[in-house]
Amino acid sequence: MKSDSIAFAVAGTLFGLLVGWVIGSQQAANALPPAPRAAASAPAPESGSRAVPVDETKAASLKDLAARQKTDPSPRAQLGNMYFDAERFDEAIAWYTEALTIDPKDVDVSTDLGVSYYYTNQPDRALEQFDRSLKLDPTHVKTILNMGIVKAFGKQDLEGAAQAWAQVVELAPNSPEGQAAQGALERLRAAHADGVGTTGTGTTGAP
């Protein structure tokens, strides 16, 4: 999983702790920058984009390696990461999909693919992909945190989002993911006097 693999959205100050924060399992979590990652109505890279231009020489080398090594998912996952960093999500989806065809048990790549679906305005496909990730690892907190974000902003399912974030807090309370989820829950509960976010952990779609 790459360092920019958490989907982000904006809803006033509700997710102040989450705004702009991205997590990955291959690299350390970034600090909390001030800019939002994506708009709630149309998941997309934020204005003032932090896209990293693709190193075309490196990309060409990885594509050549992928063509020669038909059963190696690594260059395909690396290409997916490169295009994700460049916010070229359609191309990231293509390479992540190829990597998963070779190694369907890579939970990190699976979740990166789900985030890429979200950024291309496909929240249902994102959630389906996260479900696949959780079948591989039901306690993968980055997947569950992402699931909550997509439920909140892609599906307007605040109760489902709260259940996902509560599970992240239960699984890893002292982790960056757990702290972000706790902050999101507190803001959600403060913003909704109708009890949203107070029903406990519930389920996230994992078996």
List keywords for this structure.
mainly alpha, 207 residues, single chain
Overall description:
By secondary structure, the protein is an all-alpha fold. It contains eight helices and no strands. The chain is elongated, with a radius of gyration of 17 Å. The model is unreliable at 9-14 and 16-47 (pLDDT under 50).
Q: What is the strand and helix layout of this fold?
A:
Blueprint: H1 56-68, H2 74-85, H3 89-102, H4 107-119, H5 123-136, H6 141-154, H7 158-171, H8 176-191
Helix pairs in contact: 1-2, 2-3, 3-4, 4-5, 4-6, 5-6, 6-7, 7-8
Q: What is the β-strand count?
A: 0
Taking pLDDT < 50 over at least 5 consecutive residues as the criterion, the unreliable ranges are: 9-14, 16-47
Count of alpha/pi helices:
8
- Shape descriptor reads elongated
Structural class: mainly alpha
How far the N terminus sits from the C terminus, by CA atoms, comes to 22 Å
Mean pLDDT: 78
State the assembly state of the protein chains: single chain
Radius of gyration: 17 Å
In summary, what is this structure?
By secondary structure, this protein is an all-alpha fold.
